[in-house]
Structures are given as structure tokens and as C-alpha cells.
Amino acid sequence: MAFARGSHALIYHNSAASPLNPEAFFEGLTAPEAEAFAAALEGSPGAPVFLHVGEEIYNPLPVPGDSAVCCLFQQVTVYYNRTRDTLDQAIMASQAKTTFLSEMSHDIRTPMGAIVGLTDIALAQEGSPTKVSECLEKIKVASGHMMSLLNEVLDMSRIESGRVQIQAEPTNIADLLHEILIVAKPQAASGGLQFVLDMGRIACENLTLDAVRLKQVCLNLLSNAVKYTPKGGRVELSFAVLPAGDNTVTMHVQVKDNGIGMSREFLMKLFTPFEREEKSSVHRIQGTGLGMTITKNLVELMGGQIQVESETDKGSCFTLDIPFPAGSDPEPDSSLKGCRVLLLDSDERQAGLTLALLEELGLSCDLASSADDAVMLVNDSGIMGTEYQFLLTADKLQGAEITILLSELRGRLGPQLPILLLTASDWSQIEYVFTRSGVDGFIPLPLFKSKLAQSLAAHLGGGSRQAIAEPARCDLSGLRLLLAEDNELNREIAGELIGDAGAEIDFAEDGQQAVDMFTESLPGTYDAILMDVQMPVMNGLEATARLRSLQRPDAKTVPIIAMTANAFVEDVKKSLEAGMNAHLSKPLDIDKVLSTIDGLTRGRQT
């Protein structure tokens, strides 16, 4: 405490055993502090006063007296420093969000500008369907980019609020990896990059995991590798599922590139929200600075770890190790055991992997690494009187034009022998050429034991002539649907796309109108109801609950399908709890919409 008598003061404080020297105390104050202290003694209102004395911080509390002012000094060093740190963090977060909003405004305006401009160009075209089609393709690309930006912002918001949930379900790794490659390989090809897949050991193909979130993590890393690697570069994906004991496996994923890399300084804040490295090569690339933060948070939510190594102008390497419960892989078809296979493949590594899988399935195999080997093995087979049950071939073979060789082998081996193509290429792009060369179907690479067994079993004895067929678009002729959607443009789009499949559609502009239309219709009028969730008057969840409570025979059984922009896990849960049969997220995948309607209404038509 301090007692002021005239110009003298005796100062004590609560952390010292002896008084402080008044002159030294006042002389040690900065001019702003001394001025603020004097104003406080005079009783002038203002902000709290903090005085720095050495390493300690005090808050003066003046107590006016008759002839003097008594001033109590409270030591607040810990409180002040903690508050200051919190304030600094808040200021930094505010600055980061301000920067983020500025960048997001720019990034969103870029695809929006493209959409608006290309729409104007398309509308101005008269008698030029090619130009209109070109504009529409570019609009689709720009729309997809804008959707990815918005999804990243929403994901980050949900992660920060702790509302992201991992939904683990039984998943086949072969399907998961193929879905990742379907997106990643065309991205690399469009950027003029070499894409390399390095498959390691797959200890178990069926795991329990959140496939959506795992794909998001892998595609974030792969898309970054593609974006930050100049044309002519290389992107590598290493993938393995390794045993970890106690019915658990570790998924090991590594994404490596030889792109622009990152500085050591930036690596320290790589996973900080909204951060992007300050260099010209980065500014030309669109992004929010949220992708890596989201990736790290999702990996940690799944119980895994992420590591990164990078060097400027030499590239980056991200490594993921995530534990998952192992499922049980199905036993292969016993009828395959003892079958004989002729394998045409010049790639020593891939041929070794294929041979190992065939051996695990109980098949014997002869390997031809060139055209001469293939002809010799077929000749020997004819001389010895032995037969092959399958011919597996790569899409390239040393010393041969593979399509010509396959045509000759088809003539030699007969029409009943299944010839299956092992390829990493898009089957729809090469199907025409290879089917006319005698190929019956294809098995996608990378090769998994379960998929190999399924394809071989399907063709055993010359059964199915194609392993995978293009799905036909569903025919909804004869169906009458009720579509509840408050947005006029969305009604028009959904009505046009679904109507093209043959369905008759009635429209409601809100949930209440949908309930009224259903109530006033005869039982069985509607084969299904398509319900938006966010609508005025009555939302989709309330409308569904109301419909399910109606006392009429079809109220409990009519399929109700959510078609909404509410795309998160808890949104799906709310839809199902309200009584809906399915939940489809916008923007709509029309094939998925039609197949869902078809699946839920099959057998309901009279």
C-alpha cells in the first residue's frame, strides 16, 4: 500500500518483505503509465491502470481520504500475462479470419465470375450447340471448384465446434482405393504429371472405418501434390495394410511428389488454419489454407498420425499411419482351386503380385513375359493335351501388339476360354478395342485377392462375358412422385432430370403443402415423396413426422426421400429418425437419385 503525505510516499506491496523506494518506483514508470496513474489518483474515469515495476505488474486502487489519497497496489502479474496472451491470440485469430475472408471472397468470386461469364456467352450463342456445350462443361468445372471451397469452410467450422463425428462401417479396401484412384489419376494426367502407385502388403481387405472421411484425407493430400507439382513432375502413392496385433491393422499411406516443396519455416505452421506460404508460385494456385488443418484433425479423430517432410523446390512427402479394426475376409470360391491360368505380363513386379494372389487362391499359373513365350506355352498346351481355364493379360506385352496377339490366341484357344484384361486404365475408354480383340471383361488394377476371385468365379466355364457392365439408367415410367421443394429453380431442375426417366411429378412449395396434397389424395396415389428439409411454413422433418402420423394405409409405407443441402452425418440421422427412408445430398447425383427411387419403389407399382 502507499500513503502519500505531500510529495512523499511510503509504498508496500503484497509480495515484498520490505518497502519499495518511492522515488525509484515513480521514476521507473513510463510516461503513459505515470500519466494514467496520476489520472487515477485524481479520480478521473478511464481504463484499468497497470504499472510495470521491474518484472512485476501492479494495479493501483486509489482510496480518497481527507488530506491524502491512499492507494492500494495489487500485484496482478500472472493475471495480466495470462490475459495478455489470450488477447494476443484473439487478435491473431481475428487477423487470420479477416485475411481468410478476404482470400475466400477472392477465391469464391473467381469461379462465380467464370459461371456468370460463361452463362452469358452460352445464352448469346445462336445455332452453335458445340460452343454452348463447351461453356456448360466449363461451368460444371467452376461449380465443382466452388463447392469444394464451401465444403472446406463448413468442415473447418464443424471441426472447431467439435461436431465432426467418425462413422465407422465395414468397408472393402479394394473399393475404397479404386474410388480414390478414379479421382486422383485423371487429376494427375490433366496436370501433365506421372502418377505411380506402389502397393505394399494387404494383410486384410475388409476393415471397419469411415470411408468418406478417409477418402477425404487421401484426396486432400493427392490433390495438393498435383496442385503444387509443375508439369512433367511425379506423384507417388504408397498404400499398405499391415498387421498390428489384437485383430487390428495399420493403414500406411504415403503421398510423395517432386514439386515446389515448402520451406522449413512454413512447415512449423503448415497445419494452422488459413495459412498459405508467401511465395509467388503459391499465389497462382487457388486454395483456402484449410485443407491441411482439416486433414490433420480428421486423421487424429480416426486415432492416427500424420508426418510431413519437405524441402523447397525438391518436393514433399506426407505419411499417414492409422489403426483400424480388421474384419473377416470371405473365403474364395472353392471351385477355382486347381484351375490353370495363362498370364501375359512383361512387368516383373506386377506379374509377381498376380502370381502370388493366384497361388493363394489355389490356382496354378504359367507366365508369359513376351509374345514368343505366349505362343510357346499355347503350343505346349496343345501338344500335352492340357487346358487353360483362364487367360489373364496386361494391356501391354513385350514384343507384341497386344490386341493382334489376343485375337490370334482367341482363335487358337477357342471361344469358351475367358480372356480377362488386367488394367489400370478406364475400361470405358478401351472397351471397344479390346472386346473386338477377344477380351471378355476386365479386372481393375491394383489387384486385390477378393476382386480377382470374384471376377474369375464369374467367368468360370465361360459364364459371364464381362466382369463389370455399365449400369443402365433407371426407368421410372408409371411412377407418380410428390416433390416438396421451396426453391423454384431447384424444382425445375429436379423435375426435369427425374421427369426424363419417365416419372410423373406433382410439386409442393413447402412442407405444409406437401402434407395437404398427400392427405387430399387417394391412398396409393404417390409411389414416393421427395422432401427438401429447409422449407418455410413447415420444414421437411416436421412434414415427414406429420405424414407418418396420418391414419391412412399408405402413410407408414410410402417411401420418403430427403433431397437437401444438409449433408452431414447428424443431418442423415435426423432424416431417418423423422421417418424418411433415404437421404440424398445436394448437388444431386441424378443416377443416385434415380436408383434410390427405383430401389424404394420396386414392387409398389400396381
Q: How does this model look, in words?
A:
The chain is α/β, with parallel strands linked by helices and 606 residues long. The protein has five domains: 2-75, no CATH class; 81-160, Helix Hairpins, CATH 1.10.287.130; 169-325, 2-Layer Sandwich (Heat Shock Protein 90), CATH 3.30.565; 334-459, Response regulator (Rossmann fold), CATH 3.40.50; 480-601, Response regulator (Rossmann fold, 3-Layer(aba) Sandwich). Helix content is 43%, strand content 22%. A five-stranded antiparallel β-sheet has the order 2-1-5-4-3. It has a five-stranded mixed β-sheet with strand order 7-9-10-12-11, covered by helices on one side. The radius of gyration is 34 Å and the shape is extended. The relative contact order is 0.05.
